[in-house]
Design goal:
Elements: H1 2-26, E1 29-36, E2 42-46, H2 49-58, H3 64-68, H4 70-87, H5 96-103, E3 110-111, H6 121-125, E4 128-129, E5 144-146, E6 151-156, H7 159-165, H8 174-178, H9 181-184, E7 192-197, E8 204-206, E9 211-219, H10 228-231, H11 237-240, E10 243-250, E11 254-261, E12 268-271, E13 281-282, E14 287-292, E15 296-302, E16 307-309, H12 311-318, E17 322-325, E18 330-334, H13 351-376, H14 384-400
Parallel strand pairs: 1-17
Antiparallel strand pairs: 1-2, 3-4, 5-18, 6-7, 6-17, 7-15, 8-14, 9-10, 9-13, 10-11, 11-15, 12-14, 16-18
Helix pairs in contact: 12-14, 13-14
Length: 403
């Protein structure tokens, strides 16, 4: 009888795990764990199943050598050009409605809001925000930096920590990113913010700080996908991909580097003309460029000791959890002399209660996850996936906690 109960419990655990996995697949929630900054909800990013499988097969220690071959690099380049051409054709317009439905895009946030006004899928892809849909945090105060795009973000107080926890490319460095060791010296081990845009996101990007264009550079390169799975491989994705970089000279933050990085299915990284001309003044929140079709990535690099990233972003990033953010949200503030250690977004902004609410919601989710896992495992051991989900939720709740 004891053996029968054990077997029954074991089978029940397997079936429950399989059903949970099927639910994830049904909702396409197979991407990297993220926390929605506005709601505090822990979730997995929606992503096509075939795409996830392809990334896992190609970017792992056994098959990474394939990604380095000339044949693979040529394929990615040619495929990017081919996809870009397809999305510019009038026939591509038929893809807009299914795309909106798949990713649950709220068109009220964009202009035009009627999909009939878009002639091609590319026109839709580079759609603009409706006025007022993305307010700029502390717009008149240049001591606060903002999020430059609708995306998922991780932030680290040093390049070294970013390499340790997130960017695993063998030769990643600021010198390789900018192609100039002399420029990179002033950013040695400075704070780094890494922003990843998915296909469903708004693909225009905005200035995180107010400043003057110091220089602009363009780099040819590859078109590797910028999924977190790839960034954590040994392939030098960020320093190998085609990219454009601009340096802003600011009164508050010194020099700030903004790098827009192309990815698979992104044929063009475009900076607006004003952003490419040295001496031009750029204000915080101003649109400075766009990506054309596909996922893509942005790196913003500060000089050491200049910025304090927001506490919630830092804590979740240390747990390797990305944060779902929007253009204009707070990124961090000017670091006070003497190396102030507190987070930057809480004081005087009414964010404390909001963040505490997120913590409470996260703790409730932890309880729900543990209750479910306990119920499933009454007849057998808790599955590895259930343990992982529970631990991830606990880490997210801990990361959001206010001390």
């Amino acid at each position: 009888m004891g053996l029968f109960a054990f077997v029954l419990g074991y089978v029940s655990t397997i079936l429950d795990e399989f059903m949970g996995y099927c639910k994830l697949i049904q909702n396409r929630e197979v991407g990297w764990p993220t926390v929605d900054r506005k709601t505090g909800e822990l979730k997995r990013e929606q992503q096509p199943i075939w795409k996830k499988i392809k990334l896992i097969l190609l970017f792992n220690p056994i098959t990474e050598w394939i990604d380095r071959t000339k044949l693979m690099r040529l394929y990615l380049h040619d495929n990017s050009l081919k996809e870009g051409k397809k999305e510019r054709s009038p026939r591509s317009k038929s893809k807009i409605r299914p795309f909106i439905d798949f990713y649950h895009i709220n068109m009220k946030e964009f202009t035009p809001s009627d999909i009939k006004d878009y002639a091609t899928f590319e026109d839709f892809f580079v759609r603009e925000h409706a006025r007022g849909s993305r307010p700029i945090y502390e717009e008149g105060d240049d001591s606060f930096a903002i999020v430059p795009s609708d995306c998922r973000v991780v932030v680290y107080p040093s390049v070294h920590l970013a390499q340790k926890l997130w960017i695993k490319g063998q030769h990643f460095s600021i010198a390789n990113l900018l192609g100039d060791p002399s420029i990179a010296e002033s950013f040695a081990d400075g704070p780094v913010a890494s922003f990843r845009l998915s296909p469903q996101d708004y693909h225009r990007y905005h200035a995180p700080v107010t400043g003057t264009v110091k220089w602009y550079k363009q780099f040819s390169g590859e078109y590797y996908n910028v999924d977190p799975w790839n960034l954590r491989s040994h392939i030098d994705v960020l320093t190998s991909n085609a990219r454009c970089a601009v340096c802003f000279e600011t009164e508050k933050y010194g020099d700030v580097i903004f790098v827009a990085i192309g990815a698979s299915d992104v044929g063009t990284v475009k900076f607006n003309e004003d952003t490419r001309i040295p001496g031009r003044r750029i204000r915080k929140g101003q649109e400075i460029g766009r990506f054309e079709f596909g996922g893509s990535s942005i790196l913003v690099v500060f000089q050491k000791g200049r910025i304090l990233f927001d506490e919630d972003l830092l804590n979740l990033s240390n747990e390797r959890i990305m944060v779902d953010v929007e253009v204009g949200m707070s990124l961090g503030r000017l670091q006070a002399k003497g190396g102030e250690k507190r987070g930057s977004v809480d004081e005087g902004s009414g964010k404390v209660n909001e963040k505490r609410q997120k913590v409470n919601e996260m703790h409730e989710k932890v309880g729900e996850t543990e209750t479910y896992a306990q119920a499933v495992s009454e007849g057998g051991k808790k599955s590895d996936s259930e343990k992982e989900d529970t631990q991830t939720t606990k880490r997210a709740a801990k990361a959001l906690r206010i001390t």
